[in-house]
Predict the structure of N-formylglutamate deformylase.
Amino acid sequence: MSGAADPVIRHGAAPLVLSLPHVGTAIPEDIETRLVSPWLARKDADWWIGELYAFAADLDATIVRAHWSRTVIDLNRDPTGVSLYPGQATTGLCPVETFDGEALYHQGEEPDAKEIEARIDTFYRPYHKALADEISRLRNLHERIVVYDCHSIRSAIPRLFAGKLPVFNLGTNSGASADPALMARVADIIAASGRSHVVDGRFKGGYITRHYGRPENGVHALQMELACRGYIREPMGAVTEADWPVAFDADFAAPTRGTLRAVLAACLDFAKG
């Protein structure tokens, strides 16, 4: 098992932590040689989310950004392998297929239980230790903080959900991961954007939101899942290596970035009381 690189961290002083667990595209050579296609292995990354949220540094937010691809290990899954969405199609802790159901590994090359355990030690735990350490550091400085988990996904993936996903998908673990006042304020902001939106719809928040959101301990967690069409010129329907991912266009992304800036400002206002 190749050695891991630590997640990239911006250490801020504001009571706000951004988690970017699916922006990584690195894959160790000993894993990549077993994959059907390097492109398929990176197809479901949260493309350009780091660029979209780059303004968070101006707010002095802490940013924890993954280095490794979600194909290596999915940092937003329960490490025990328990499904976060029972009864619905999803991908696992160490995915063996894409969101569209395409095989990621050559037959017989999928990771076994021993390898999955090794990947947890090598790739999963460093990210979560970094995230937990930053939460603890900031919690010692502030009475309450907000953990904001940043995600995106293609707008139409029939295997995962019917029709087109709303542009803004706010997840709060069905209201358990954050104070109702914070959730209501963020919901109002995305509603005011004029774009389609939902709270606790198909995506209620993954492991990070559910695990770290402890309002009773002053840690409030939200997940924002963005449909890609909200910030990039996404081709609708099936995508190919020839047209995915598309380039990031800051001008095209500007309206969504403006809404997200208002969301993070609201998170800071809440945390500061």
